[in-house]
Specification:
This protein is an alpha/beta fold. The protein has a single domain, classed as 3-Layer(aba) Sandwich (Uracil-DNA Glycosylase, subunit E). It is built from 9 helices and 6 strands. Helix 1 packs antiparallel against helix 4. The protein is globular, with a radius of gyration of 16 Å. Bound molecules: uracil (URA).
Length: 195
């Protein structure tokens, strides 16, 4: 089966799974180039994302899209999704149970897309993959996994609140084209089995 068909099937399965939490919100499955090198993973959809059923299209999404452009990456060339695929009410943080409920689907989504690099946006996404990591300490580093690299970045919503965070967010994204170039070489090293 083709990648696109597998993703369509996965999306249909999520829609049919009425046991998943946050049923009152729309499903925001993810979008972008399914043959991408880089997969961006955020936290959970916000209000605008819920309305438009698209990831990262509100204020923080606009900053992400703009910053990608500034570092020479087209939004259409990457894939963007979230760990929790429906909006928590009042923009509250996703709960551990919600993250766990969507996990099997995110795992399959990552396997199907099979990117070389995962960029986590914010601490929830970072700690999903590396529970011991700290966003302020580890953002901008490159972690080597068995199958892919993991590059933690600040969440663009945090970058909207602080100039210092904005600069660090931009620096992390600016390194991505070089990391893509070096990805195959880095992946020959024996990485963590986690991602
Ligand atoms: N914040 C996220 O983490 N994800 C989105 O899709 C939008 C805002």
């Amino acid at each position: 089966m083709l990648k696109a068909e597998k993703l369509k099937e996965l999306e249909a399965e999520i829609l049919a799974d009425k046991a998943l939490p946050l049923q009152e919100s729309n499903l925001v499955f993810g979008e972008g180039n399914i043959d991408c090198d880089i997969l961006f993973i955020g936290e959970a959809p916000g209000k605008t994302e819920d309305e438009l059923k698209r990831p990262f299209v509100g204020r923080s999404g606009q900053l992400l899209t703009k910053t990608l452009g500034e570092v020479g990456i087209k939004r259409e060339d990457v894939y963007i999704t979230n760990i929790v695929k429906r909006r928590p009410p009042d923009n509250r943080d996703p709960l551990p149970d919600e993250i766990a409920a969507y996990k099997p689907y995110l795992t399959r989504q990552i396997d199907i897309i099979d990117p070389k690099i995962i960029v986590t946006l914010g601490r929830f996404s970072l700690n999903y993959f590396l529970p011991e990591a700290k966003i302020t300490r580890d953002q901008g580093k490159v972690f080597i996994g068995k199958k892919r690299l993991l590059v933690p970045a600040f969440h663009p919503a945090a970058a909207l609140r602080s100039t210092e965070t904005l600069n660090l967010f931009k620096q992390s994204l600016k390194r991505l084209p070089k990391i893509v170039e070096k990805a195959d070489e880095l992946l020959k090293k024996d990485g963590k089995p986690t991602f």
